[in-house]
Amino acid sequence: MTPINELKSKAMPLPLPNIDTDQIIPKQFLKRIERTGYGDFLFYDWRYNLDVPDSITPNASFVINKPEYHGAQILIAERNFGCGSSREHAAWALNQFGFLAVIAPTFADIFYSNAGKNGIILVRLQEDHVKTLMGRSTKNPDSIITINLEHQTVTDDEGFHARFEIEPFRKFCLLNGYDDISLTLQHTEALTSFEAAHEKRLWAMPKSHLAGANQPAI
């Protein structure tokens, strides 16, 4: 996971509430074995014209296909973004498409956790602030929004300024680029020491633990 402190980008407006994870990444794509390539299926049912299965074409009216928003790393949505199932694929799809942040009034709890673990900053702002940014990005697609994670601020080139809250641990992981695995690996020395000490105290372990570890019963 790449460390992130300050993000400067134009933003893609998606003025819809209750965007669920099946809309973010439809269920038929969850069968894939790979963990990569999900960006191609982000917002699939909205992104493409699916009326003729043998001739699927991009939906030119959907924001993700509008050339003026290409390269946007910030998505702006309405309340309750990421509701629905707990699929982590939703966070994968957003990240692999190129989004590094989502701004909305509220997020579903499980999606909020999944996104943070996949390097996406979720910014909760009050509804009128979200509408302001949404309107500016709609009117001027080249408008730049700056998210400063260290200072927990959102600004734009038209004078907007707001502060957002984020849990200290989530902020620490995003600033340092730690997912669950890389965070655990920061404690390799302590884990090695624990395992060495554990080997010396096998006599103190219950038989069920020893049997599970293929150790001889005492």
Description:
The chain is α/β, with parallel strands linked by helices and 218 residues long. It has helices at 21-24, 44-47, 89-97, 109-117, 127-139, 168-176, 180-185, 188-199, 207-212; strands at 6-14, 48-49, 57-58, 74-77, 101-104, 121-124, 144-148, 153-156, 161-163. The strands form 2 sheets. Strands 6-5-4-1-7-8-9 form a 7-stranded mixed beta sheet, with helices on both faces. The chain starts with 5 loop residues before the first strand and ends in a 6-residue tail after the last helix.
Order of helices and strands: EHHEEEHEHEHEEEHHHH
**Name given to the CATH architecture of the largest domain:** Alpha-Beta Barrel
Give a short account of the largest sheet.
7 strands, mixed
Residue stretches low in confidence (pLDDT < 50, at least 5 long) are none
* Whole-number tally of structural domains: 2
CATH topology of the largest domain: Aconitase, domain 4
Proportion of helical residues: 25-40%
Output mean pLDDT.
91
Number of strands: 9
Strand content: 15-25%
Q: How far is it from the N-terminal to the C-terminal residue, by CA?
A: 44 Å
Identify the CATH class of the largest domain. Answer: Alpha Beta
Structural class: alpha/beta
Separate helix tally = 9
Q: What radius of gyration results from the CA coordinates? A: 22 Å
Strand order across the largest sheet: 6-5-4-1-7-8-9
Shape descriptor reads globular
